[in-house]
Specification:
single chain; about 15% helix; 5 helices; Glutaconate Coenzyme A-transferase; ten-stranded mixed beta sheet; alpha/beta
Amino acid sequence: MLDKIGIAKRIAKEVKDGYYVNLGIGIPTLVANYIPEGVNVTLQSENGMLGMGPFPFEGEEDPDLINAGKQTITEVAGTSYFDSALSFGMIRAGKVDLTILGAMEVSENGDIANWKIPGKMVKGMGGAMDLVAAAKNIIVAMQHVNKAGESKLLPECSLPLTGVKCVKKIVTELAVLEVVPGKGFILLERAPGVTVEEIQKATAGKLIIEGEIPEMVID
């Protein structure tokens, strides 16, 4: 079973050379620390930054350099800054190749709910709705089950939706899954030490298992 860093390391393998990538709040922000050597990507933040680097070491933080989640970050050579209007113009124009988001629920059709739990106070939806509507590819980094042990990979989402039929791939502490609307969750890889049976038990939506499922390679 993977921890949050393990999930981020596995997702970092999905990032391709030349990509423009937006990292959502939570586990996705960790991906910046694990981009494979030799892969040149540009990380975009909707608060107005193009060219984010990894998190700073302790004592080297700059309070003026933050991502959309208000975490301190670093810049790389060629970093540029702009207002939110231009940032969302980039997103809505389809300039982002890959968006990596957290989620509270994902349905077997690729619907995502990640911004609101009814009855609980939220600051707002942030840029998630724009990102899922306009990004060319969407990968979700999430826990497979909630704190009560209930599956977060469902036949249908019960929470307010952020986007419909948009999630392409999910990486959890248990597995890597491809989402095919009308078909379900296709199991691609299992986390080290995790069995197919454990993944089946933790998945409420339709899980498709085809052939021998390989174990993830993290490092």
